[in-house]
Amino acid sequence: MTGFTVPALRSGLPIGPGWLTGTDTAPVVFPYDGSVVAHAPVGSAAHADAALDAGAAAVKRVGALTSAARRSILLDVETAVRARSAEFTELLVAETGKTRADCALELSRTLFTWSATAEEVAHIHGETVPLDIQESGAGLIGYWNRRPIGLVVGIAGFNAPLLLASHKIAPSIAAGCPVICKPAPATPLSALWLAELVREAAERHGAPPEIVQVVTGDAEVGRRLVTDPRVAAVSFTGSAAVGHRIAKDAAPRKVLLELGSNAALVVAPDADLEKAAEAVLRGGFYFNGQACIAVQRVIVCEPVREEFVARLTAGIGELTTGDPRDPATRVAPLIDEASTDRALSWIEKAEQAGAKLLAGGRRAGRAIEPTILLDVPEQEEAWCEEIFAPVVALRSVPDLPAAFDLVNRSRYGLHASVYTRSLATAFKAVAELEVGGVIVNEAPGFRSDIMPYGGIKDSGVGREGPRFAIEELTVTRMAVIRPE
């Protein structure tokens, strides 16, 4: 396979009105073979302070931008990213190690997110309030509208660095808020290039460059950003453990947390087993299993267990493991060796506890073969925690009530799905499954970028999706007027 052609990115970090150079640098590596893709700037606590100063100073200027200016910036960014689609896709393959098909999907969803967010600018409005419903309100005029919340800090995960950064930056701009983005240390390049394009669009429409800033770096940089009292909201995508710590550190500021999960797929006795098996094979291994709504738990009703397992194991051999640059590859290496070692240890522990390995479970170069575990004990990490790897754990239960109960016993609650031909079962699932999204006859990894997306329990708080993120990043301002 050929090497990468990484676009020539600006040196330094987009902080304040320009780009701060002279930072430390760190290699960004291609997970497939460990080769160095580029050397990226590494920020420090001092850089975080500089970004906070600049962002706080820009709050009023960004908040005063007209709806037309904010919408135009968002549309210009979509156009600029679209013009560089091939280069962005190549960059995503290089820094994430995901397959080319997965990276092309991320790019497509990113473009949609920017254009959809632009259209939501026209829908930020309020309502009148009939204050005279009470005697004390006679003669008063009341209405409320939505105002920008203020400075936003957006912290994105490594698994979809361009898309997740876009879900932080685009709604912030639409709401009239300057935003400081902190990308994951392993995948900073696409966010840095995106910020460059956003700043170019902002300049064309009279907005300050501080509308978006990027600070890379370690956990200390993140702590400095989320604990500053000038920050109005923190939007974080990542693990539950880190998210819970951010919630404590950021208090009393508003936090939006898109955290981990171990998404379940329920196979009802009346399910189309061919489609359900295909959904597991498609939904359990995309992004190399590094997606919070990838299928991790499969709960099968016992009457169809044998046939479903046979269909699943027959199909897993078609998932090719290898170089993500090869169009035939479906599963590639995880982001780093530590993640690989952890996932393999969880597989081994599950086997020692009595689980049966139906497929995979071994290294394939730097990757893990697509893995299916049967009858994993409920207390094992491969079942009850987020494995974030190409591993699916399967258990059977007597009936649907037992299946729904098993789904709900998780401490997580992001997405779950059920395969059934019964409309009654579908509505029962929507009513009873304790998750942020119930998906019927599709994998739990389905996400339209305009829908409200988020979880309950340890999977987080708040919702993403342009309309819903904008609502989170604006505050209700009530106006009461007595005409004289």
What would you say this structure looks like, in words?
The protein has 484 residues and is α/β, with parallel strands linked by helices. It is 39% helix and 22% strand. It contains 15 helices and 24 strands. The chain has helices at residues 45-63, 67-83, 85-96, 100-120, 161-175, 189-204, 219-227, 240-250, 273-283, 305-316, 337-352, 381-384, 400-408, 423-432, 466-472; strands at residues 13-15, 18-20, 24-29, 36-42, 127-129, 141-148, 151-155, 179-182, 212-214, 231-237, 254-258, 264-267, 297-301, 356-359, 363-364, 367-368, 371-374, 391-397, 412-413, 415-419, 437-440, 456-457, 460-461, 474-481. The strands form 7 sheets. Strands 14-17-18-13-12-20-21 form a 7-stranded mixed β-sheet, with helices on both faces. The longest helix has 21 residues, at 100-120. The model has no long low-confidence stretch (mean pLDDT 96).
